[in-house]
Write a structure and sequence with these properties.
The structure holds two protein chains of two kinds. Chain A is of the alpha/beta class. Chain A is 37% helix and 15% strand. Chain B is 41% helix and 19% strand. Chain B is globular, with a radius of gyration of 21 Å. Classes of the chains: A alpha/beta, B alpha/beta. Strand 4 of chain A pairs parallel with strand 9 of chain B, so a sheet runs across the interface.
Chain lengths: 312, 396
């Protein structure tokens, strides 16, 4: 691997995640998956593991697979355990001379399959120390079943199970901070990433996660045009706004050392991220100014804490 | 070689001899000893299995499914709530046609929570696409486990296999047992060389698709055909096993059935008690017999009908309730199997032994007494009853 990132060179590598899948236009999941898999060295094989999700039903509908590498989907809540099993088989078969070469193990789950129903399985796999990468493509709700709230859904967001009405004001709780929980597992590498700019951030973190021995975790923001209610062409812009408002800070924790990987030149107000998305529309109605204030205060508090932790 | 082992020890010893590639390990009474014994084999370097100590039975089955898909031979053990937690994954293992092997140490399901034996756990999993083979005693628990892989891994079958034994009664009681030499076991089991697997270098594989209506039914029919094909393979493996062990196994065991007029059909350790009762009744001139079901999935319906064709009255004994309001699962299968006979015996169902309730030879004799009365009078009485209930009038 060259140490200098070059997008042109990266995209010229043979694609491991091919076109023709059935993900929506303007969906973050596909570009996250291709971005992560592109970080694999050409000569290395991978087994891709997938939790039940939009990604799974859109990329492996019998008899077509979008993956050039081996791939396994088992269930919604067990993708980390599934990856553990493949990795265990690799060690066993390697020891017995039945498998050759380097194989990497990369799991993709949505936030429902990661923050919620697959949380125990993920925690177990991280604690056991399998040599694997778990990638959460975080679109902040159960999108595959039609936009229901998850523990990753942010405060005030409208979903089909947190509707806005005369009494209801969207989700009542704040988003669970899963990345911090994973850091608390004392794994060698954990990071928050987003598909922004020339994908250097996602690529660099993916490469580190894949080629660091032991369990590694990537939490990648993955905008969803259906659930977040934005025009499909705004995908990159929305991801960028999440980062520049510090709603989704980019950082990594390597062997316990916290490091911000991006500091916005000008920290934008949270409103800039919320306004283009239909799921937050009610926050801009007259009389709901307090919602914007609360959302801003929460982001500021989290950001300050992150600055302290990273010593930035 | 002869030894004295508990059922759990016997299965753990079989596992040591097999030296599987991957084991998913999670404790639950009464199967806990299996991963415990095996952990010691790992610690002592007697096996080089990848021993994965997961955080739940859900993950132990998930690990097994994935490892088997990756090209490894994967095993685990569980009981009761552990098997129930695996429920969704049992279907996935079978439908992905992955011959995982599971030692099920039968225990009652909650609630109320109860750690003792009945068959409600594995009976709840009877329609998941797993082959189910039940043991009467420690010897059979050992033998059945050794036969599981040659059955499940056959290309025409490729289904997971659950070998079951009765919790505590079989799993914890120490009995004399004949063990095979490890070399003989390894030759019998052979290498696991699947045609396609995730880690195969030449040909990447995708497992577990989203399957749509135009394909799903074809896939399910293939699975159903595999289960049908399993019956012949089970018998073939039994023949091979007899050559190395001298012990003979079929789909079920017929005990003193040649001229039997009154018969029991049951599963598991109660067969030992029932055999003693049959012997005693035979001494008294009663033409009593017993059928002990060994293979419940695939269900040997035609064979069972033939074996019961000349009886007058039959009691099916179910060690799980089933809550169908129409009798237990073994009764449903047996009654269905007998339907095609021109002349059918009278048939009753007795649910017994739930949550470890003991069953004695006297209890079995009472059942035969009831069958004798039915055969003599043609009056069947209540078809579906529970043995030894304190709160209701006793029928059995």
């Amino acid at each position: 691997m060259s140490t200098v990132y070059n997008l042109k060179r990266e995209v010229e590598k043979p694609a491991r995640f091919t076109g023709g899948h059935r993900l929506c236009a303007g969906c973050g999941a596909g570009i996250v998956v291709s971005g992560v898999l592109r970080a694999l060295d050409n000569e290395d094989r991978a087994v891709v593991v997938n939790a039940t999700s939009c990604l799974e039903v859109s990329t492996f509908m019998y008899p077509y697979t979008a993956y050039m590498d081996s791939y396994i989907h088992s269930a919604f809540e067990n993708s980390a355990a599934t990856c553990s099993g493949v990795e265990a088989a690799y060690h066993a078969l390697k020891r017995r001379g039945k498998v050759e070469g380097t194989v990497k193990f990369i799991t993709f789950g949505g936030d429902g399959g990661t923050y919620d129903i697959g949380f125990q399985s993920l925690s177990g796999a991280m604690e056991r120390g399998h040599d694997m990468v778990y990638v959460c493509y975080d679109n902040e709700a159960y999108m595959n079943t039609g936009i229901q709230r998850s523990s990753s859904t942010p405060h005030f967001a409208r979903t089909t199970t947190t509707p806005v009405g005369s009494v209801g004001q969207g989700k009542k709780q704040n988003k669970k901070d899963l990345t911090e929980i994973l850091v608390a597992h004392n794994i060698p590498y954990a990071a928050q990433a987003a598909p922004i700019g020339n994908f250097k951030d996602l690529h660099t973190k993916s490469y580190k996660a894949i080629y660091t021995e032991g369990p590694c975790f990537l939490n990648v923001l993955s905008p969803c045009p259906r659930g977040w209610d934005y025009p499909t062409e705004k995908l990159a812009e929305i991801a960028r706004l999440a980062v520049d408002t510090c709603v989704w800070p980019l950082y990594e924790v390597e062997e316990g050392v916290w490091r911000l990987t991006y500091i916005p030149k000008k920290k934008l107000p949270v409103e800039d991220f919320l306004r283009p998305q239909g799921r937050f529309r009610h926050m801009f109605e007259k009389g709901n100014e307090w919602m914007l204030e609360e959302a801003q205060a929460y982001v500021d508090q989290k950001w300050e804490r992150l600055l302290e932790r990273t010593g930035a | 070689m002869s030894d004295r082992l508990s059922g759990n020890e016997a299965v753990a010893y079989a596992l040591k001899q097999i030296n599987p590639d991957v084991m998913g390990a999670f404790p639950i009474t009464p199967s806990t000893e299996i991963p415990e014994y095996f952990a010691q084999y790992v610690a002592d370097g007697e096996v080089n299995t990848e021993y994965v100590t997961v955080e739940s039975e859900h993950s132990s089955m998930s690990v097994c499914i994935a490892a088997q898909a990756a090209g490894a031979r994967a095993v685990c053990a569980t009981s009761s709530a552990g098997l129930a937690l695996m429920y969704e994954l049992l279907y996935i293992a079978a439908s992905c046609r992955l011959p995982v092997t599971l030692a099920c140490v039968n225990r009652a399901l909650s609630g109320p929570i109860n750690i003792n034996n009945d068959h409600s756990d594995s009976m709840g999993a009877r329609d998941t696409g797993w082959i189910q083979i039940y043991a009467e005693n420690n010897q059979e628990a050992y033998d059945n486990f050794l036969m599981a892989m040659p059955i499940g891994e056959t290309p025409s079958v490729r289904l997971p296999v659950m070998t079951c034994m009765d919790g505590f009664i079989t799993s914890h009681a120490v009995e004399n047992i004949e063990l095979l030499e490890t070399e003989v076991v390894r030759k019998f089991i052979g290498e696991y060389n699947p045609e396609n697997y995730l880690l195969k270098k030449e040909n990447p594989l995708a497992v577990g698709p989203y399957d749509v209506s135009p394909y799903y039914m074809e896939h399910k029919v293939l699975e159903a055909e595999a289960m049908k094909a399993a019956k012949a393979r089970i018998l073939e493996v039994a023949t091979e096993f007899e050559k190395i062990s001298g012990r003979r196994y079929g789909l079920f065991e017929e005990y003193r059935m040649e001229d039997a007029e009154l018969a029991l059909v049951l599963i598991g350790s109660t067969a030992g008690t029932a055999k003693a009762a049959v012997d005693k009744l035979r001494e008294d001139g009663v033409k009593a017999g017993l059928i002990k079901i060994r293979v419940f999935r695939p269900f040997p319906g035609e064979e069972l009908a033939r074996a019961l064709a000349n009886t007058k009255a039959v009691a099916v004994m179910d060690k799980s309730e089933g809550f169908s309001a129409n009798g237990g699962p073994l009764f449903a299968e047996t009654r269905s199997a007998l339907y095609d006979l021109k002349e059918r015996p009278y048939l009753i169902d007795i649910v017994y032994g739930l949550g470890g309730r003991d069953v004695k030879t006297e209890d079995i004799e009472k059942v035969f007494g009831r069958l004798a009365n039915i055969a003599a009078t043609g009056e069947i009485g209540p078809v579906y009853t529970h043995m030894g209930q304190r709160s209701k009038e006793e029928n059995a």
